[in-house]
Write a structure and sequence with these properties.
Helix content is 11%, strand content 29%. By secondary structure, it is mainly β. The strands form 2 sheets. It has a 6-stranded antiparallel beta sheet, covered by helices on one side.
Length: 206
């Protein structure tokens, strides 16, 4: 029997879900302009987590593509990248925004940020965040120029574009609809918007 459930990642906030091995997770860029920082933690051992560094090492590139198996910091498969209807290019290099980043940028007052969104989202699952794991920045474009410098450009996703992964183990996935307005990552106008996640059972058809 096929089933699915949809969740909202509220603008500028976070969300975490328990995902069982074989389930598909579809992250939808509902308005086409929102970056979604994404993490995954092994449910059995939350110190084993999706690692951008280890994925880049094994895949030998900095941008992941459908068909890629994504691994943990212990070289265990955790997600299979199954589908992408967007133009791709999802960043794997840039750190999650944090209060310290905004202070560095000259913002003195508290600013919503992806680190705090992650901490709050996974707290009900008993996960404590020390050093923030590097996120998979879905829909964020930060290409490397020939000079070696990083470029920051507007998302090129269309409303409704999505990325889909399949869980390779029981895991906790966390998401943040990034509130950053310093870089031109949220449509270039600094306005975060809702994104959506659909959780499909292992018998669901993509």
């Amino acid at each position: 029997m096929q089933s699915s459930k949809q969740f909202t990642i509220e603008a500028g906030k976070g969300l975490a879900l328990s995902v069982k091995k074989g389930q598909f997770v579809r992250v939808i860029n509902t308005y086409g302009t929102q970056v979604v920082d994404t993490w995954a933690f092994s449910e059995e051992d939350t110190e084993s987590l999706l690692s951008m560094e280890h994925c880049r090492e094994v895949l030998q590139r900095i941008i992941f593509e459908p068909g890629d198996q994504l691994i943990t910091n212990r070289y265990q498969p955790i997600l299979k990248f199954t589908e992408d209807t967007s133009p791709g290019g999802h960043d794997t290099l840039i750190a999650a925004c944090s209060q310290e980043m905004y202070i560095h940028a000259g913002r003195k007052e508290y600013h919503a940020n992806c680190r705090d969104n992650l901490i709050n989202a996974v707290k009900p699952f008993g996960i404590k965040i020390g050093i923030t794991p590097s996120p998979w920045n879905l829909f964020m474009l930060a290409p490397i120029r020939e000079s070696g410098l990083i470029d920051y450009v507007r998302p090129t996703s269309k409303p409704g574009d999505y990325v889909e992964v399949c869980a390779e183990m029981d895991c906790i996935m966390a998401f943040s609809a990034c509130p950053d307005e310093i870089y031109p990552t949220n449509g270039g106008d600094g306005t975060p918007v809702d994104a959506h996640v659909i959780l499909l059972n292992k018998n669901s058809v993509k």
